[in-house]
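input
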Amino acid sequence: MTQDIQKFMAGLEEVIPEVMVKDLLQSKKNLRIKFGADPSAPDLHLGHMVILNKLRLLQDMGHTVLFLIGDFTAMIGDPTGKSETRKPLNKEQIQENALTYQKQVFKILEPNKTEIVYNSTWLESLSSTDMLKLMAHHTVARMLERDDFEKRFKSGSAIGLHEFLYPLLQGYDSVVLENDLEIGGTDQKFNLLMGRHLQKEYGKKQQAIVTLPILEGINGVQKMSKSLGNHIGIMEDEHQIYGKLMSIPDSLIYSYYKLLANLDAIELTTIQQELDLPETNPKFLKEKLAVLLVTKLHSEAAAKAAQERFKTVFSKKLIPDDMPEISVPSDASIRLDMVISEHVPALSKNEIRRLMGQGGVFLDEEKITDIFFSFSPRDGQVLKVGKRLFFKIIAG
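output
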């Protein structure tokens, strides 16, 4: 295998069937690679980057990525990993989120080798007859073999009939697109296999499947998720990304390199050997990783600036000189949580209040734990949000 193929194969969880995938990659054919994402939330994070990195490698090898935005399936909601029926989103929410996805994926993917497709294009036009024919290609017994459905059925939890449609519709996307390969997380294996099954049922060439491990969140406890507050957003600024990567527990260093750094097997072995040496300071490996990822998502200059600022703020315990300024009306008392919400859009109102309650917000050097705290702004006040964000207040 070539070095590019070896780099692509490194860190994969499962390849189905393995011989087919290797044959496809070694052929001179321009492959059509499917990756689907439901716009169920506005932000992508480094958990999505695990797959996007592999897709970019495939693009560098000359292949085409079909980035499928599941605007139709998002109205059902992916039941994967859910212990109860999830609430569907409305069309307005889905369309708004879908627009942000396009901007975010091109931080990593090559635009001229990416086709953006929406599954509403063909799923909305399915007739009742078409839907019945689609449903006839699978059985309830097979659906209940799926881990989350099985658990819910045994526990007596409700399973909506529309939830059975989700994997069928995702699989039907592959029938329409006639893709050669589909990539997803390990939690998507059932849905990916459905695509392979339905392609065969409809007389199409079956896709190969590649699954990747799920990235753990920065606390090292659960998978990365914005709702759990353990994520690093692709669109966050360089200082936030750098600082969060420096905060990960040492136990995550190897897996973050494995899933995010696009290293081949030999390079990964070198990282593991370094970690095993008693004289190795894990901090230096985190710095190397943080510089690499900030460079990828922003620029080399941004990575250097983030590195210097981190050293200034956290190693020397100083307030940075280059704080962004925020203008706050000076003629009235104003809620501090509202100021943070306006200037730190990456944090939801609940996340801000939780952060304040945990003692993570300071005005000058005063810790503010009252979520209803109001103040009369003065020029030059320093607002600190969490461990990494500093703002200079301009009262006007």
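quick obs: The two ends are 64 Å apart (CA to CA).
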